Amino acid sequence: MTEISEATQSIADRPRYDCRNAYVETLAELAHENHRIVGVVNDSVGSSKLDAFKKAFPDRLINVGIAEQDMVGVAAGLANGGRIAFVSAASCFLTGRALEQIKADVAYSNRNVKLCGMSPGMAYGELGPTHHSIEDIAWLRAIHNITIVVPADPIETAAAMRWAAEVEGPVFIRVSRMSVPEIYPADYTFVPGKAITLRDGDDVTLISNGTVLWRALVAAEQLQDQGISARVISMPTVKPLDTDAVLQAARETRGIVTAEEATVAGALGGAVAETVVQNHPIKIKILGVPEFAPTGSAGYLLDRYGMSPEGIAEAARSLVT
User: Cα separation of 7 and 15, whole Å?
Assistant: First the structure.
């Protein structure tokens, strides 16, 4: 497990960024460096912010139209021909409509395809449950041979993409639309399967990733003011999970809270609970979305389901008081 020193400025006061900007900038850099890099989209050039990439590499962006199954199949075929295909589509449609192709054409066939789930979680809040993508991590965790990455800020998004371009095989990366503050230093290097300790503590552990991680850090600040020492662990790789970090937290603190912009069934919380219950049972609170979430802004919906800093802190207090 990697450790990163705590910053002096509260993370809540930092500027916020759209991770899709880091995504497209990094994809363009990778394409300049490697002619094998191609993009495949489902008529989502605008929502993926790929207009500049399309202009720079008009013959290396394949738009299949609103045909997600074809999109994944085309990407697998390109990979079979030696290309490194970055598939860019709203995560709800990429993982929901093309799940069979992800399973058979990409994972089972072990194709070098990078599935980039854009605007995941509840980023399309006002469009309602049809556009929410809270199930994507749980669906893909059930499929063998896919690395699942949920970056927490633009720096980690770019670092995960660079790693994915170098590694052979299927990768799924969530690319957040919801603005988040920078958490990691500019020289951060993504290491698959490794958790990062952002804050040490010995009373309770908060494990999070994606758009909720910065909220967990603010919750830890609030808990410190109340005399509770909270360890904050970033878990960018849901699969494979850093089980050593989870079990160390289970041994050294009195409870674990997981918090994520995903379903409570089978995502990060499920992975942590499976690890703990089989090896070192302790009290756990799983914060996430337990139902079809209604319409509303992503921030409102996260707060509704207990993932405001105050909600995360309250969940932690309930385990230690």
Answer: 14
Domain count, the chain: 2
By residue range, what is the domain housing residue 314?
Answer: 2-13+189-320
Give the global pTM: 0.95
Helix (H, G, I), strand (E, B) or coil at 311: helix
Mean pLDDT of the chain: 96
CATH number, position 56? 3.40.50.970
Is residue 139 within 8 Å of 98, Cβ to Cβ?
no
When pLDDT is averaged across residues 305-321 and rounded to a whole number, the result is 97
Residues with a catalytic annotation lie at 68
Q: Is residue 41 scored above 80 in pLDDT?
A: yes
Burial of 137 (0-12, 13-18, 19+ CB in 10 A): buried
The predicted pLDDT at position 94 comes to: 97
Can you tell me the distance from the alpha carbon of 268 to that of 137, in angstroms, rounded to the nearest whole number?
8
Q: Are residues 246 and 316 in the same domain?
A: yes
